[in-house]
Amino acid sequence: MRLTRQRRRAALLFVLPMLLVLAAVAGWPLARTVWFGFTDASLSSTEGYRLVGLDNFRALATDPAWWRAVWNTVRFAAVSVALETVLGTAVALTLDAPLRARGLLRASVLVPWAIPTVVSAQMWSWMYNDLYGVVNHVLLALGIVDHPLAFTASPSLALPALIAVDVWKTTPFMALLVLAALQLVPRDLHEAARIDGAGAPWVFWRVTLPLIRPALLVAVVFRTLDALRIFDLPYVLTGNSQATATMAVFARQQLVDFQDVGRGSAASTFLFAVVAVLAAVYVTAGRVRLAAGERRG
Amino acid sequence: MPARFLAAVASAALLAALATPRAARAATVAVACGSVGAELELCRTGAEAWARKTGNRVEVVSVPKDSNEQLALYQQLLASRSSRIDVLRIDVVWPGLLASHLADMGKAVPREVVARHFPAVVEASTVRGKLVALPAFTDVGLLYYRKDLLEKYGRGVPDTWQELADTARAIQDGERKAGNERMWGFVFQGRAYEGLTCNALEWIDSFGGGTIVDAAGKVTVDNPRAVAALQLASSWVRTISPEGVLNYAEEEARGAFQSGNAVFMRNWPYAWALSQGAGSPVKGKVGVAPLPRGGAGGKHAGTLGGWQWAVSRYSRSTREAVDLATYLASPGEQKRAALEASFNPTIPALYRDPDILARNPFVGDLLSVFTSAVARPSRATGARYNQVSAAFWNAVHDSLAGTTPAAESLARLRKTLERIGRNGRW
What we know:
The complex is a heterodimer of chains A (297) and B (426).
Chain A: H1 2-36, H2 55-61, H3 64-96, H4 102-109, H5 111-114, H6 117-127, H7 134-141, H8 158-182, H9 187-195, H10 200-228, H11 232-238, H12 247-257, H13 261-296
Helix pairs in contact in A: 1-13, 2-13, 3-8, 3-10, 3-12, 6-11, 8-10, 8-11, 9-10, 10-13, 12-13
Chain B: H1 2-18, E1 28-32, H2 39-54, E2 57-61, H3 67-79, E3 87-91, H4 95-98, H5 111-114, H6 119-124, E4 126-127, E5 130-131, E6 133-140, E7 142-146, H7 147-152, H8 161-177, E8 184-187, H9 194-206, H10 224-236, H11 250-258, E9 262-267, H12 270-275, E10 286-289, E11 304-311, H13 318-328, H14 331-341, H15 354-359, H16 362-365, H17 367-371, H18 378-381, H19 385-401, H20 406-420
Parallel strand pairs in B: 1-2, 1-3, 8-9
Antiparallel strand pairs in B: 3-11, 4-5, 6-11, 7-9, 7-10
C-alpha cells in the first residue's frame, strides 16, 4: 500500500512539469480565447474592452455566413475523412503484400504528406487554374470535358476541389496508420481462415477488419478533428470566399480583417467546443464498442 | 509584453552590430513595399538611392500580394507595437483603420511639400487633423482594350457597358472560330476580396446607383440602378468572361489579357507599363480608355485607388523614416515610377511632363478621370469599412456566381450593412 502511494507521488512529480507546460501553452491561451468571447475587445487595442455577456454568441447564431461556414466545414470533414479512410485502407492493404520494392514504395507514398500544406495548396491552385492549369489540360486531352473548368472559382466545384487536394495529401497518413495496424495482425489467422476455405473478401471483412478496427478508429478520430480545424487549404486556394470558408477561416476574418476579437473568439470557442464534444463522443463510443467486442470474444 | 521584450532584445542586437565606428550614426530603416507588378523593384531601387544619399541603410520587407492580407499583416505588427517595420505603404482606404498606429508627419514635413499633391489625396491621408501618410501614387480603374482586334472587327472603343458586352461577344466568337479557343471577351477582378469591391463600385456608380453607403452614413446600395448594374455584370460570367474570373485578382486578369486571351480588361494603371514591356505578346496592341458608362444616361466611373507612404509610431528611427517617406513621395521618385511602372503621380505638375506623356500617352487624356474618381465609402464607415467591404464583395460574388439573384443579394446586403452600421451611427 505504502509503496503504491509513494510511486504515485513520484509519478505525479514526474508528470508535473509537463502539466505546467501544457497549462501554459494550451490552457492559458484557450482560457483567454473563451474569455475574449464574452467581451467587445478589438485587435487594434486589446486593453479597454468591456464584458458584453452572450452578445457575440447571439450575433454568431443569427449570422448566415457563420452557419454557411459550419456547413462547409462539416461537409468537408465528413467527405474527406470517409474517402481518406477507404483509400488509405486500400493503399495499406497493397503495401502490406510482399512486394519487392516495398520500402521504397512506402517512402514514396508519404511524399504528399511531407509537403507543407501551404506549398501544396499553392501548387494545386496553379494546377487548377482555368487558363494554364495542368488539370484542365489533361482533362481536355482525354476528352473528359469539352471546355476548361474553373475549379477554384465555380461555386459547385470549389468545395469538391478542396476535398480532392485534402484526400491527395492525407491518404498517405491514413495508409501509414492502417499499415502499422495490419502488421500486428497475426499471419496464422489469415492462414487458418484460408485453409478453412475462406475467400479474400471474407478474410478481410471477418478477420482483418475487426482486428485493425481500434487503430482505424483512432486514425479516423485524429483525421476528423484535424479536418474540422482546416484553415490553410481553403485560405490559400479560395481566400475568404464564402462558398468554401470554413469555421477557422471565418474566425480569422473576424479576428484579423475586422479586428473583432470578441466575435472571432466566440467563433473559435464554438469551433473548440465542436471538436471537444466530437472527441468525447468518439472516445466513449469507441470504448463501448471495444468493450462489447471483448465480451463477445 | 513579450513582443516588446523581444523587440528590445532584437534592437539591442542590432545596435551592437551597428556599433562599428564608421556606421555608428547610420540608421537602418525597414520599408514594406507592395509586390504587385513592378512595384517591389521600384521601391527597392528608390529606397536604396535614398540610403546612398543619406548614408543610412534600408531593409526591404516583402509583403503578400493581396492587399487584404497586407492590411492584416500590418494590423498584427502594429497592434503588437512592433518596430520591425518603419515605413509602410498603405492603401488609400486604410488611414482611418491604422491612424492610431501611425506617426504624425504634419510637423516634420514642410507645408509646401505637402501642398504639391492633389488636395483630395492629402485629405484622404489626414485623420482628425493628423497627416498620417504622404502620397506615393494615385490609381483609378481603367479599361484596357486590344486595338488590333477592335480594328480587325471594325468596332469602336465601347462607350457603355452594353456596347462592351456586344463587342466582346462578337470578337470572342470570331476569334474562337478562327482557332483561338481560349479567347474571352472581358476579364476583371472577381475574386471575393477588396478588388471586387472596387470593380463593383464602378459598375454601380456608372449606372448612377450611388456608393454603397453615402457620405452621411446611410446605406444606399439597395436601389433599382444598382440592381440593374449588378444584373448586367452577372450576365457576363460564362458568356464573355470565364467562370475562373470569380477567383481572379489583378495579376490573374493581367495574365489572361497580356497573354493575348482577352479582348477587354479592367485593371489599374500599373498594367500599362507591363503590357508594353519587352516580351509582352500584346506589346503595341493595347489601348486604354475610361471605363464604360452604365447606359446612355450613365457616367464614366473609376474607383479611386492609390497608395501612400506612412511611418509607424513604433519606429525607433522616426526621423530617418519620415525622411525616407518624404523622399519616396518626392516629384523625382513619382516621375521615375510613372516612367518605369506607369504609376500615376499625385502631383498635378507632372501631368504636363513631356517625358511622362511620351511614355504613357493616356495620362494626359485621362486627367479628368483621375481627378473625378469615385471613392470607396471608407470615410463614412470608419473603422468598420473592412466589414462593409467584405459584406459588399460577398453579395456581389454571390450574384456573379449565380447562386443569388442580384436584387435579392442587394436587399440582403442592405440588412447586413444596417446591422453593421447600427442604423447609420457606424
